[in-house]
TrEMBL record:
GO terms for biological process: ribosomal small subunit assembly; rRNA processing. One of its GO terms (molecular function) is RNA binding. The keyword RNA-binding applies. PANTHER family: RIBOSOMAL RNA PROCESSING PROTEIN 7-RELATED (PTHR13191), RIBOSOMAL RNA-PROCESSING PROTEIN 7 HOMOLOG A-RELATED (PTHR13191:SF0). It comes from Photinus pyralis (Common eastern firefly). This is RRM domain-containing protein. Residues 165-192 are annotated as: Disordered. One of its GO terms (cellular component) is UTP-C complex.
Length: 251
């Protein structure tokens, strides 16, 4: 398989299983930066891009061991550009540090590598990977219960010690009670009860919508006429009584 070069990176195909008919491509080149660090020596470090999220450092160490002895693999999800860290979504970048500088040269001469897992290590992808990550986030019930019980026990112990220290500071063994001002309530006199009842009656009147419906208006008019007739009859009787008992009778 003929290797390709893209913008200074060499394209390195990888296989994830023996039955794979397609290959995933990694982009590799020699690590070269202006400011060197001790953990990434430039003459022994290989810079790798486009690493799938399900590939870990152990897989990369085994895969590139064919080029030379790998001393360390540094995986990260951020790469620096012009002094700023840029987040890479999903895929990772890696710095593979070889024990000898010839390891970088041999790695750049590779045409392809295999990440075929062994019996004791399998690559989990897709739904199985997401299911495993979700299950790993779920806490063990017994372990969680034990942690909660330990926390509550420690908290109760602290509160007990604080209560003991507070009682020890009281003078003469007496419990000091602070005198908090209390607002005296109104005495339930007859006048107060009447005011309360009037207030409740006014609130009830506000809730009731008078003359809202047509039949309410009609009943209101009828009641008003009845009251006027009743008052008229009472006034007639009162006038008749006044005429009967008056002392001055001109005729």
């Amino acid at each position: 398989m003929k290797s390709k070069v893209n913008e200074g990176f060499k394209v390195l195909p990888i296989r994830l299983s023996e039955k794979s008919t397609t290959c995933h491509e990694l982009f590799i080149k020699k690590h070269a930066v202006r400011h060197h660090t001790d953990d990434k020596p430039p003459d022994r470090t290989l810079f790798v891009l486009n690493i799938p999220p399900y590939i870990n450092a152990n897989y990369l160490m085994k895969a590139f061991s064919s080029a030379g002895t790998v001393d360390d693999v540094i995986l990260q999800t951020k790469q620096s550009q012009a002094g700023e860290d840029v987040e890479t979504v999903g895929f990772q970048i890696a710095f593979i540090i070889f024990k000898e500088s010839d390891g970088v040269k041999h790695a750049l001469d590779l045409s392809t590598i295999d990440l075929i897992p062994t019996n004791d290590a399998t690559i989990v992808t897709g739904i199985k990977k997401w299911t495993k990550e979700y299950n790993d986030q779920i806490c063990d019930r017994d372990k969680l219960e034990e942690e909660v019980n330990n926390f509550v026990f420690k908290f109760d112990k602290i509160m007990e010690n604080e209560n003991k220290s507070a009682k020890g500071t009281e003078s003469g063994g007496w419990t000091v009670v602070s005198n908090k001002s209390r607002r005296k309530g109104n005495a339930r006199k007859e006048s107060v009860k009447n005011k309360i009842n009037e207030r409740i009656a006014k609130q009830d009147e506000r809730k009731y919508l008078a003359d809202f419906y047509t039949f309410q208006k009609r009943e209101s008019k009828m009641n008003h006429l009845v009251q006027m007739r009743k008052k008229y009859e009472e006034d007639k009787k009162r006038v008749a009584a006044m005429k009967q008992f008056r002392k001055f009778k001109p005729y």
